[in-house]
Design goal:
Helix content: 25-40%
Largest sheet: 2 strands, antiparallel
Radius of gyration: 24 Å
Distance between the termini: 44 Å
Structural class: alpha+beta
Strand order of the largest sheet: 1-2
Strand content: 5-15%
């Protein structure tokens, strides 16, 4: 059974934030991915790249736009 959960690392021990439903001393495989370590500089840089990408997009449409019914192929 595969589970995804969050945990807090404190004094060398990972403490899950919820019940895992494991038996005592059961071995598990962990993949640790920090979820709150993204710095402000990294976020700002990512946002700038996203906005620059959006700014550079071009959309062209010929003719009228389809109606909602045409999009959803309703009779």
């Amino acid at each position: 059974m595969t589970q995804v959960t969050e945990a807090v690392y404190t004094r060398g021990v990972l403490k899950p934030l919820g019940e895992l439903g494991l038996r005592e001393a059961q071995r598990v495989r962990l993949i640790v991915q920090p979820i709150d370590d993204i710095g402000g500089d990294e976020r700002s840089s990512a946002l700038r790249r996203l906005l620059a990408g959006i700014e550079g997009m071009e959309f062209h449409s010929c003719g009228r736009l389809p109606t909602r019914d045409e999009i959803h192929d309703r009779p």
